[in-house]
Design a protein that fits this description.
Length: 220
């Protein structure tokens, strides 16, 4: 395998021709792109200078190209400077970007398993839930806090949902609408009740007819 910094023996530019014809950079997964791009360059015996001058041909989207052209190492071409600048600029973008759909998928996974029903389950669930919730709230990428509350509640087993409802009633934080429907309280209030339930036991409870349904159910 040729050294990426060596280039061709006669000083001519070596064209980088990756085996993966789909190799390209659209502003996402910059670390993966740089790794694949450098591997392709090494296999072809391309130099650092070759990589700096040809990376533009692997960039997709005018906005990404416009940014690339402003980075250190683009002109004059210096691969080490350009690579560092690309990582500095797009590496932040690589931080997980979440949508409410990610929460829905996580909750559905737990529903399919019967719901969160123990303290161990809850700890595992939170490892997946909290980074997504934190991101959505920080970036204001969710239309409704109520939607997050509902998804959070639905992730628990029927028995645990019953205990959560009982805890809300005990804490006098359950909300009843004018048409006699129960509605989830603010997320912080709901989470406090859940924490109480989960630390109080394993979440098991005798199933009773629930009179709660995320703002749509009726009091029986």
């Amino acid at each position: 395998m040729a050294d990426a910094g060596a280039g061709s023996s006669d000083g001519k530019m070596v064209k980088i021709k990756p085996q993966d014809k789909s190799l390209g950079f659209d502003g996402n997964n910059v670390k993966r792109f740089l790794s694949d791009y450098q591997l392709a360059a090494r296999l072809d015996g391309a130099s650092d200078s070759d990589m700096a001058q040809q990376v533009r041909f692997f960039v997709r989207g005018e906005e990404v190209k416009d940014v690339l052209e402003t980075l250190d190492g683009f002109e004059p071409p210096n691969w080490e400077l350009l690579k560092a600048a690309m990582l500095a600029h797009w590496g932040k973008v690589d931080i997980a970007k979440f949508t409410t759909q990610d929460l829905e998928s996580l909750v559905q996974e737990w529903i399919d398993k019967g719901g969160v029903s123990s303290l161990v389950n809850y700890q595992d669930f939170r490892k997946g839930w909290e980074p997504i919730q934190s991101y959505l709230l920080r970036k204001a990428h969710t239309d409704s806090l109520e939607e997050i509350q509902t998804l959070f509640y639905r992730s628990f087993s029927t028995a645990v949902q019953e205990r959560i409802r009982d805890q809300l009633i005990k804490d006098k934080t359950m909300i009843t609408t004018l048409d006699n429907r129960f509605k989830l309280p603010a997320f912080d209030v709901l989470k406090k009740a859940v924490d109480e339930v989960m630390k109080d036991g394993d979440g098991s409870a005798t199933k009773r007819g629930s009179c709660f349904s995320e703002g749509t159910g009726h009091h029986q």
